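[Q] Does anyone have a clean C-alpha cell version of this?
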Amino acid sequence: MIGYILLGIAIFTYIIELRKISLMIFFSFMLNGWCVLTDDVLGSKNYDLALIYIGFNLAYSTLFEKKPPRIPDSKLRFWLVLFFLFMLLDILFSLKHYQFTTYQVIQGCRASFLFLSYYILKDVDRKDFIWVNQFFFYVTLVTSVLYVFEVLFDWHLLPYDYDNVKIDDFTGIKRYYNSPPLLYWFIFVTILSPKHLKSYFSFPGIFILVIALIATLGRTQIAMTGIVLALGLLIQHKAKSMLLVTFVTLVLYIPFSGIIGLRFAGKFEKSTESEIKSIFSGGIQETAYYGNTNDVGTLTYRFAWIYERASYLANRPFAENLMGLGLISDSQTITVHQRYNFLLGLPDQDGDTTQMTTPDISYGNLFSKYGYLGSFIYLSIWFYLLFFFIHNKRDNDYSFLGLLIVLEMLLLSFSGTSTSDQGNLIYPFMVYLLVHYKKLENSRQGFLTSKPQDV
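[A] Here you go.
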C-alpha cells in the first residue's frame, strides 16, 4: 500500500512539474528504497513500481511534452534498442519453445525492462540531477551509520530478514547484505571530487563510508573498491588526495586490522589462495558434478554454479544456448523444478535448490535468463558506458567518476548482482547524461567566446 501511495505521489509531482520530488522517488524505486523502503515495507516490489513509473512517464512525455534537444547518444541507444528487440524475441521463445504461460513470462521478465529508465532520464534537467545526487549523499550517510551499528552491535535498525543472518566463518561477525546501494559511488565522490557535493560533511563522510565498506566483510567489495580508488588517484595525479586516502586508510585500518586480516586470510581450504588453486585444478567441475559446497569457498561455488548450467545447455538445442533457460521466476517452483534439477544454488523457502537465479554472481543470472546472445547484448551496454567514460575521462569530473563506478560494478559482478540487477544502471545513465550536458555547455561557451572574434 505504501508503495502505491509513493508511486501516486511520484506521478502527480511529475505532472505538476515538481520534478525533483518525482525523480527522487523514482531513483528510490530503482535502488531498492535505499535498503530502508524495501519491498516488505512498501507492500509491493520496488522494481514493479519503477516499471509502472517508466511506462507512465514515456506515455505522458510522448503525448504532452516537448522534447529537449537530442544529445549525440546514438551508440548507446543502438545497444538499448537491440536489447529491447532481443527481449521481445526471448518472450516469444519462452512462450512457444518452453511453453510457459503468459503470466509466468511476464512475472519472469518484468525486471528486465528497467534499462528503459534511460529514456526517462534523458529528458531530465541537469540541475535536477545535481540536486538528487546531493540529496542522496545525506541519505547514504545516514543509512551507512545505521548499517555500521547494525553490524557492530547487532541492532535491528534497518528492514532485514534478521532470523536468517549467518555468522561469517572467518571473523565470527554476523554478515548483513543490506549495505547502502550508493556506498561505492560516494566513496569515490567524497575522496576524488567532493566539490560536487557542496557539503560540510564530505570530509567526515569519508570515514563513515569507508567504515561501512569494511562492515560488509566482503573481500571482493573491499579489495575492488581499493583498487578502483587507487586507479582513480593515479589517473588524476592528485598527490594531496593520495595523502588523504593513505591517512584515512591508516586511521581506519588499526582498529579493524584483525577483522580485515582474518577476512582476507581465510581458513584452511577456503582461503583465497586455496580457492584459486582449486579453480585451476578442476575444483569447479568437481563441485558442479557432486553438488557439494561444504568444502569449497565462494569463488569456486560461483563459477561452478554457471558451469553446471552451461554443461546442461551444451546438450540442448542451439536456440536454448542463444536464448537461455527461459523467462520464468524462481517463485514458479513447480514449473521450474519440473524442467530443471540443478544441484547448486541457495535453498528457497521450501528448502529446495533455487534453479534460475543466484545472488552470488551476475554472470550466472545473465547466462541463465538471456543465454549467450542476450548476455552479450546486455553486457555491451555496460561496456559501452565503460569505454565512453574512458574516452572522456579527462574532459570533466563526471566522466572520470563515471569510469570508476562502472568499473566498480563490472568488478563486483563476480561476487554479486551488480550488473545483472538493472536498477544499478540508473547512476551510470545519469552520469553519462551529465557528461553530455557538460559537453554541450562547453560548446556553447566556446561558441560565445569565438563569436566576437569572427565578427
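[Q] Thanks! Anything notable?
[A] The radius of gyration is 23 Å.
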